[in-house]
Amino acid sequence: QVSPGLRTPRLPVWLCSVSGRHGVLFGTDSRLLSDWKCERIFHLYFYSGQQEQTQTAHLTIDTHTHHWEEAQSEDPCTPGRRCPALQMAIRTKWAGATISWNGTDPFF
């Protein structure tokens, strides 16, 4: 039998399989599960356990500023460059969102 805590999580968590690798994308704000207004600017964390990841990646998601409006020097999805697969996965939930890696080099 599945625990009620697993059926209805208290914090937002997603198990990800991106490009054949697995990881956990999670947030620490429980309001993301119940209040759509909290989806304006929020933080998510990603951990894959892979050797190349030395610490949990801290991502800032902004759903009202679109990635094509960012300065090209800040956006890893500029023409001629591939967008990190994790960003593309996040944008399946929040289409067009701006994703800041907060100083971490985009990976995955």
Key attributes of the depicted protein:
single chain, about 110 residues, mainly beta, five-stranded antiparallel sheet, 2 helices, about 10% helix, globular, hydrolase, ubl conjugation pathway
What are the low-pLDDT stretches, counting only 5+ consecutive residues below 50? none
Q: Total strand count, please?
A: 5
Tell me the overall shape.
globular
Strand-residue fraction?
25-35%
Taken in chain order, the helices and strands follow as HEEEEHE
Radius of gyration: 15 Å
Number of domains: 1
What about the largest sheet? 5 strands, antiparallel
Number of helices: 2
Mean pLDDT metric: 82
Short description:
With 108 residues, this protein is mainly beta.
What does this molecule look like?
The chain has 108 residues and is mainly beta. 12% of the residues lie in helices and 31% in strands. The chain is built from two helices and five strands. The chain has one domain (4-100). A five-stranded antiparallel β-sheet has the order 1-2-3-4-5, covered by helices on one side. The chain is globular. A hairpin with a 2-residue loop joins strand 1 (13-18) and strand 2 (21-26). The protein has helices spanning 4-7, 85-93, and strands at residues 13-18, 21-26, 41-47, 57-66, 97-100.
List the SSEs and their pairings.
Layout: H1 4-7, E1 13-18, E2 21-26, E3 41-47, E4 57-66, H2 85-93, E5 97-100
EC number: 3.4.19.12
Catalytic activity: Thiol-dependent hydrolysis of ester, thioester, amide, peptide and isopeptide bonds formed by the C-terminal Gly of ubiquitin (a 76-residue protein attached to proteins as an intracellular targeting signal)
Keywords: Hydrolase, Protease, Thiol protease, Ubl conjugation pathway
